[in-house]
Design goal:
The structure is a homodimer of 357-residue chains. By secondary structure, the first copy, chain A, is an alpha/beta fold. Chain A has helices at 36-44, 59-68, 86-100, 118-135, 181-190, 204-214, 216-228, 234-244, 250-255, 279-282, 341-350, and strands at 2-8, 53-58, 77-80, 105-110, 114-115, 138-143, 154-164, 167-176, 193-203, 261-266, 270-271, 291-302, 305-319, 321-325, 329-334. Chain A folds into 2 domains: 2-271, Spore Coat Polysaccharide Biosynthesis Protein SpsA, Chain A; 277-356, no CATH class.
């Protein structure tokens, strides 16, 4: 059976001032009337029963999250006491799925990505499930790159393994972390590189085996938890294990090392919308290349992202800028500095400007 | 006796969104706790009794103005039915002063300029009054230029006429309208050019004589008004006269043509603070050259003017920008486009965005 695993522990600081500590990006409705986590769930519902979907999140977001997705049973919301990157998170989810469904396949998804072509996306999950089930591979979805993006990791793929329902599945040669511009340009022209979407499909049993081999300390911790699941020691044991384990990504910890890793090249209209600067990829622009949410009047204003639901924004001589207004704050920065919004939030943390975090 | 004439009819659109139709620049407290008209009155009070100060304004501002300067008697607030530039405004004021004090001298001042050195300014008015009284000259205050400003008119001065209290008074050779940059640079290096401050001192009788000679139609209109002042026809007659007269500045209508025009070169820390871009001339900058009013956090932010009393403004990679927040609007534009705020207001007028005007 296919299970959903939605990772919802992110802080989304690059979407400040909209994304806040108490209500990060995945719990915000930046792109539509539904929040990103709601969109994520809506998307997989035709394929995966909500009873078979787990959401992993942090304690401070659990309450708001439960409000937003009341269709998910309480016991399917797993709370990590602290964030330890993706490997522990995925390992923990695998424990629960394997107990419930020893042969279960899990689709590991982010809670804050956009996917335009939902039908294609569900096709991909179905195909990946079959391969994971039949072949025992670790499957990842690799997005055909549109431009030499330096904000994503890349996957180099090799020989074709098989083809199902018009989808070809390839062996992965290697994973590459976020490259420099020139390197990314080389990837694009060589043709056998894909963007690493961070979406994975595999059997719970398979990934636990891989963790046992490549991350033995994490595996021991997970086994301690496994022994007490559904007992009154569950929460305390998770806390203990998490306080002692290494923070490590599934990419670095497993994917780069495992042998049987496959990728499905695809193009389901995916974007991780990592920061305000990526908004024009996913929302329509006006004739001057502006994305405007709210009331705006401009003279010589182009290529800009203006999100201002409360006030009239008047701009003169503005090009490629990000202007974001919320109830209590206003962000102004050039689009090319969009990633630095994270730095801004860190600066505010240092200055204990808690009310704005 | 010296009388004050404060012209308060301006719309101050270049200070939008702070300056509004119902409460323009002179009725705003942009630079201190007092509004600009209050500052203007405070400045001259040591020299000119409030009973001898006239304020000329438009109907829509009269009520707010009376609230702000309750010390000015109601009959000293003269309402122009429409704006017709400075010549009719000054002529009208001269009528009232001459009736009250046939030998009276009037100091014509703007309601929305800043002057830092108040003591020096009052010295200048005293000296100018003496020259106006004794010699019958039209006197203007010429500011020693600091830079090749293209936003001001210039005055070329010639021979010295006399000196009183260490102030030298020169004959004016000519008035020059706002010059191009290269021309302004030439003025600065030649040494005998001054900025035209738009502040004038003369006998009411003298300026009315000059209007009779150089603007005879305006003079006839003023005489019609003079005949009915203090009767129940006063208001209607002013309306009639104003509806028929030409809109013309005192500079163009009189100063450029009159023979006995003198200037006192001076430096009382004057600024007409014509638009947001001139704020750094009059308010202190921080170490990055920013003028900040409100709560701000910046990364790589310099040379900018940020006026935001309501929200936290966060800026990254911003240089020489104007960012102005009010209750209902937000303006963002480069400092070099500061003059274009006027255009923005005109655009909003065309679009009937009345609530923001």
């Amino acid at each position: 059976m296919l299970h959903g695993v939605i990772m919802a522990g992110g802080s989304g600081t690059r979407f400040w001032p909209k994304s806040r500590k108490s209500k990060p990006k995945q719990l915000q409705n930046i792109f539509s009337k539904r929040t990103m986590i709601q969109e994520t769930l809506d998307r997989i519902k035709p394929l995966i029963d909500t009873n078979n979907t787990l959401i992993i999140t942090g304690r401070s977001h659990a309450e708001e999250l439960k409000k937003q997705v009341p269709e998910i049973p309480d016991q399917n919301i797993i709370i990590e006491p602290v964030g330890r990157n993706t490997a522990p998170c995925i390992g923990l989810a695998a424990l629960y799925i394997k107990r419930k469904d020893p042969q279960g396949v899990m689709a590991v998804l982010a809670s804050d990505h956009l996917i335009k072509d939902e039908k294609e996306f569900l096709n991909l999950l179905s195909v990946a499930k079959m391969v994971a089930e039949e072949k025992g591979y670790l499957i990842t979805l690799g997005i055909r790159p549109k431009k030499p993006e330096t904000g994503y990791g890349y996957i180099q793929y090799g020989e074709e393994i098989l083809a199902i329902n018009n989808k070809k599945i390839f062996k992965v040669n290697r994973f590459i972390e976020k490259p420099k511009k020139e390197v990314a340009e080389g990837f694009l022209s060589s043709g056998n590189y894909l963007w690493n979407s961070g979406m994975f499909i595999w059997k719970a049993d398979t990934i636990l085996n891989m963790i046992e081999i490549h991350l033995p300390e994490l595996y021991q911790g997970l086994m301690r938890i496994d022994n007490v699941i559904s007992t009154d020691k569950e929460r305390d044991t998770i806390e203990e294990v998490y306080s002692g384990i290494e923070s490590i990504s599934i990419d670095y910890g497993i994917m780069e090392k495992a042998k049987y890793v496959a990728v499905i090249p695809c193009d389901p209209g995916w974007s991780d919308v990592g920061c305000w600067n990526s908004i024009p990829e996913v929302l329509p622009c006006d004739e001057d290349g502006n994305v405007i949410i709210g009331k705006h009047i401009g003279i010589d204003t182009s290529g800009s992202i203006i999100h201002a639901p409360h006030k009239l924004i008047a701009t003169i001589g503005i090009k490629d800028m990000i202007i974001i207004e919320t109830e209590d704050a206003l962000l102004i920065c050039p689009r090319e500095r969009g990633e630095d919004v994270k730095k801004m939030v860190e600066t505010m943390k240092e200055k204990s400007m808690d009310e704005y975090l």
